[in-house]
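Deliverable D4.2, example record:
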Amino acid sequence: MGHFQFLKEKKFYINLLIILLLCGVLLWLTFRLLDRYTRHDKVFTMPDFVGQDFRQVEHDYSKEFNFILIDSVYPKGQQPGIIYQQDPLPGSKIKKGRNVYAIIVAMTPEKTVMPNLKGISLREAIGRLESSGLDVDYLDYVSYSYKNNIIEQYYQGHPIEPGTELVKGSKIMLSVGIGDDKTDIKVPNLIGKPAEEAKRLLNLAGLNLGEEVSEDSDSIQYMCIRMMSPGPSSNKVKPGTFINVWYHSNRTMDFNKEMDELLHEDSVINRPQSFVLDTITDTFTEPIETTDYENEDEDEF
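Output generated by the structure prediction step:
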């Protein structure tokens, strides 16, 4: 029993109480500091930074978030330096001081190499330019025995050699052979086609894109070709002719109806001559009665 004699002493209980109090204080301080460190119950809604300049966003929100740039991309038509993608996503519930990872549009333009287009067909040349990230400026048809073959390639008015480094999206002018027959081209019907495809489709047909007119202010992804001049109902045109186009939003116009009307107009304008002659002939298929006087005249002869 001598081992438990301390249980009868008052000093033991005083020390035990002090220890319990210290433990309670330590636990309280721990939880308080933990709440402060983790910002418990203090959440914010993640803003949408996409499309904004990364440096400006980093400056304006430096006290709220820690921005980390992880990559850069080269999307076509985007302003350099803007935020292209972010993590966490906009609208997410986050805490102050959170790391925000950003992908931006590259500040320096992406480079590519000029391919060799000489001696190949126009269709193949357009495909190679697209694969290299380059665009057709316009087609210049010149006298040459091989039709639609590439004679020369130009950049900013000067011949450009294969292997030359260029900025992606640069425009290349192509000198194309017109062929010995020098036949004209029928304008393709592009009514209802997306505006983004207008230039490529015309180039593939041996034509150039002329003036572009937008009839409303909708986004380019909804714009379609409403009218062309010269149009598909016109007579054939010379290779390399510039075709003017008018765009309209497919959200405010019924392009199927426009196509039906155009096809009807085209069928009337380009109706075969034989159809007209047959129509005229059909109006005189009924027999014409002759008078006795006419019969008498025939007998006299």
